[in-house]
Amino acid sequence: MCKDFIDGLVSVIVPVYNAERYIRETLDSIIGQTYKNIEVICVDDMSNDSSREIIKEYESKYSNIKSILLSENAGVANARNIGIENARGRYIAFLDSDDLWLPEKIDKQIDFMEKNGYCFTFTGYRFIDSESQKLNTIVHAKPELTYEKMLRHNAISCLTVVIDRYIVKEIRMKKIHHEDYVAWLDILKQGHKAHGLDELLALYRTRRGSLSGNKFRAACWTWNILRNEEKLGFFKALYYFSNYAVINVYKHFLSK
């Protein structure tokens, strides 16, 4: 399977849905990377705004951008999976259509992985608002995460991840809320570890009314993962959920 991937190539999966306000800024942040061996796969999940026209415009302008236009809306997990299936690179990275990377993000992360032999890495990031203004919250990358540590808190944000497919053979998002968290747990359960590069290299956009911005719903999704996906007993799940709750209350308090 490894022989089918292009060594050194980073495939960036960008799920798109009604992102006309931000998608240009997002794609520009990928095109502007100092690491140039990148392909961008934009998977449009049946947008009904001008997102499709914008990504087709970028595809015609840049040879390393590919658009996949879905015929029905099936959610972000499906869009990411289709992107992964069509990716040619050894490395997989993710960036949602309203988030941003700083210019040296991929360059520094690939160097970090190659020097240390790491297969699953993530970085620090900062919150921004709907107008791209920086907020107070900076999330630092923990040095190393195992499956056990990840149960305590989803300490990896999707926009910061790079995964080496030579080593991690299966990357798949389930059609469930917090699908990225479940995917990281699945990878770590295989015995891999996630290693953090503690540099601020990405910008995560938080918006009022966004699904992830609803703290109560996000908490319910996390509880469901602990109990129904990871099959933890009630008290063990409660222990890990309590860790999650304390950390997230603190993090979002700082972002005000």
From TrEMBL:
<dbReference type="GO" id="GO:0016758">
    <property type="term" value="F:hexosyltransferase activity"/>
</dbReference>
<dbReference type="Pfam" id="PF00535">
    <property type="entry name" value="Glycos_transf_2"/>
</dbReference>
<protein>
    <submittedName>
        <fullName>Glycosyltransferase family 2 protein</fullName>
    </submittedName>
</protein>
<dbReference type="InterPro" id="IPR001173">
    <property type="entry name" value="Glyco_trans_2-like"/>
</dbReference>
<feature type="domain" description="Glycosyltransferase 2-like">
    <location>
        <begin position="11"/>
        <end position="135"/>
    </location>
</feature>
<dbReference type="InterPro" id="IPR029044">
    <property type="entry name" value="Nucleotide-diphossugar_trans"/>
</dbReference>
<keyword id="KW-0808">Transferase</keyword>
